[in-house]
Design brief:
The protein has a single domain, classed as Rossmann fold (3-Layer(aba) Sandwich). Helix content is 41%, strand content 15%.
Length: 238
């Protein structure tokens, strides 16, 4: 192959690479209360496969208040971002969304990207109101569980919302007892209405339960779509 032909071939290969190949954006993932980072694996794999630098954090979700948990993850996020000049996106599930919100109120990166909230209790949860005083609830969910009550002012507790925020809510439940105490359509832990938050850029409802929403194919796809477009994909929504 001649030098000219080789250069032409290389140019064609580079031109045909997917658009995300040189993106270099970063993403920070945070699971919900009582879960582990394995709960966010499908989202991690999808973002990684599409060219993102991803950190999927395990944190002691039952061993502190929401502001304390935000400080707990700071060293790991700081270490991950050291030396990187990437735009930083955040993806949280359930309690993880509130921890991220508290984190961003104090430690927002200079190049803050988009923030996807999956099944967030943005107005608290009636389930926490109903069972919050029981010994079993206090033992399992710890201090953060007490901060999931519907009467709390999250603007005071967590600070003002930052970043372009997209909210994914579920409308399926496998917990009829919890759903009984929740007003309106819900995912078994939070109502669709309580996932909404002033200042969000977009909101979408998918057919998923609170427990399994992060492993739902549509939730995974919609998460990346919002990060890349600042809105959800309603053309392919089920």
């Amino acid at each position: 192959m001649s030098k000219t032909a080789a250069l032409l071939f290389l140019g064609l290969c580079l031109f045909s690479l997917p658009a995300y190949a040189d993106k270099g954006d970063c993403a920070v993932l945070l699971h919900g209360i009582g879960r582990t980072k394995a709960n966010m694996d499908e989202i991690r794999e999808d973002l990684t496969d599409h060219g993102y630098n991803v950190i999927n954090i395990d944190y002691p979700s039952r061993n502190g208040t929401i502001p304390e948990l935000a400080e707990n993850i700071h060293p790991e996020v700081k270490k991950f971002l050291k030396g990187r000049k990437c735009k930083v996106h955040f993806v949280g599930s359930s309690l993880g969304t509130l921890v991220i919100r508290a984190y961003l109120s104090k430690h927002a990166p200079k190049k803050l990207g988009r923030f996807v909230m999956i099944a967030p209790p943005n107005k608290g949860s009636e389930v926490a109101d109903f069972t919050g005083e029981t010994a079993a609830y206090k033992s399992f969910y710890g201090p953060a569980g007490q901060e999931l009550r519907t009467k709390l002012d999250y603007d005071i507790l967590l600070g003002k919302l930052k970043g372009d925020v997209g909210v994914i809510a579920g409308d399926r439940s496998i917990d009829p007892i919890s759903s009984f105490v929740i007003d309106g359509p819900d995912d078994g832990k939070v109502s669709i209405e309580s996932t909404k938050i002033d200042g969000m850029k977009d909101h979408i409802v998918i057919h998923a339960t609170h427990t399994f929403i992060t492993t739902n194919d549509e939730a995974v796809a919609q998460t990346r779509y919002f990060i890349e477009n600042g809105k959800f994909d309603r053309e392919t929504a089920k």
